[in-house]
Amino acid sequence: MDFSLTEEHIMIRDAARDFAKNELLPGVIERDNKQKFPTQQIKMMGELGFLGMMVDPKYGGGGMDTMSYALAMEEISKIDASASVVMSVNNSLVCYGIESYGSEEQKQKYLTKLATGEKLGAFCLSEPEAGSDATSQKTTAIDHGDHYILNGTKNWITNGNSADYYLVIAQTDREKKHKGINAFIVEKSWEGFEIGPKEDKLGIRGSDTHSLIFNDVKVPKENRIGEDGFGFKFAMKTLAGGRIGIAAQALGIAGGAYDLAREYSKVRKSFGTEICNHQAIAFKLADMHTSIEAAKLLVMKAAWDKDQGNDYTMSGAIAKLYASQVAMDVSIEAVQVHGGNGYVKEYHVERLMRDAKITQIYEGTSEIQKIVISRGLLRD
User: Contact at 8 Å (CB) between 173 and 180?
Assistant: First the structure.
C-alpha cells in the first residue's frame, strides 16, 4: 500500500493550511462568541475553489479527487470547523448530489453556480420528528401535474439562511413509505419559503443553522431529482459520501487540538521544567498522536475507496465513527493539558472541544454508523 501524497495533494493541503491560518484564524473566537457567519471567508473559499472541489471542470468545479477534498477539509477544520461544515455541505451533499443524480438542465442551472461559490447550497433532510429515522418524513410534496406543492418544516439546516439553493427531501406518497419520498431543488426566493429562527448551538457557532418552513411552495416538476420515488435512496447515497467529509472534519479538529496542546506543553512550566517533560503529559501527547494517526488512515482509506469506485458505505461509516470519537477524546485531553487556561476562550481548545461533539451527531449519529457497519458485516 502506498500512502504517499502526490504533488497536487501536497499543494492543495498547503493552500488550505495557509488560508486557514491567514484568513480564518483572525476573528475565529469573535465569530464563535457572536455566532457570526464567516461571509467574507466563505466567499474567498469559493474563489479559491474550495466549494466545488470534486465537481467536473465543465460545470465550474476543480475536478479533484476525494483525497484532495479530505486533505483540505482537515486543514480548514484545524482552525475553524464552522467554515469547514459550510464547505462540507456544499461539496459532499449539494454539489455531489446534483452532479451524480441531477439532470443536465439542473446541472447547468444550479451546479455551475454552486461549484464556483457564486451560490451556496443546503441539504434539508432532518425534521422535528425525523432525525436518525429519515423515513419518517412529515414534509409533503403533493403532485399537481407540472409541479409539486411543498409543505412542512426542516430542522438543524446548515447554511439555513445563507444558502441560495436547497435540496429538500419530502414525502409524495405516504402509502409507499420510503419509496414514496422525493428530492427537490428549491430556490430561496420562492413564495411560501420561510427561514425560521437561528439555533443557539454548543459548537460550530459560526455556522448558519436554522429551521426552514415551507407553506404551499410551488416546485416545478423539472426540479425533482431523479425518478419518482428516488428521494430516500438519493439521501442515503449522498450522505454516504458526506460522512467522509465529516470524518475529515473530525480529524482536523483533533489535529488542531493536538497541535495546540503540544506547543503549549513546550512553554508551560511546572515543578521547574516544561510540562512536556512530565510523563503524565508526554503520555497524553503520545496517545493523542497515535489515535489521530489511526483516524487519518481510516479517512484516507474511505477517500481512496470512493476515488477507486469501490463501495465506500462501510469505510466511510467506520472513518466517521472512529474519527469523531478521536475528535472528542483528543480535544478533551487538549483542554486538560492546558489546565486552567484550557477553560479560557483565548487558547482555542475549549472551542475545538465544543465543535468536536457535533461530528458524532450530524450526517448520521455514531449509533447510526454502527448500524451501517454491522449490517455490512452481516450481509453475507
Answer: yes
**Residue 235 reports pLDDT greater than 80:** yes
Q: Residue for cell digits 399537481?
A: 144
pLDDT band with cut points at 50, 70 and 90 for residue 16? very high
Per-residue burial over 51-64, b = 16 or more CB atoms within 10 Å of its CB, e = otherwise: bbbbbeeebbbbeb
Residue 74 is a catalytic residue: no
Beta carbons within 10 angstroms of residue 290's beta carbon? 11
Strand 121-124 and strand 165-171: pairing?
parallel
Cα 32 to Cα 290: distance, rounded to the nearest angstrom: 29
pLDDT (0 to 100) of residue 178: 93
Q: Cβ distance 249 to 361 under 8 Å? A: no
Sign of CA dihedral 369, 314, 165, 135: negative
Spatial distance between the Cα atoms of 55 and 42, rounded to a whole number of angstroms? 18
326 close to 250: Cβ distance less than 8 angstroms:
yes
Point out the catalytic residue in the list 23, 333, 350, 363.
363
pLDDT digits (tens, 9 = 90+) for 123-167: 999 999 888 888 889 999 999 999 999 999 999 999 999 999 999
Q: What is the pTM of this model?
A: 0.97
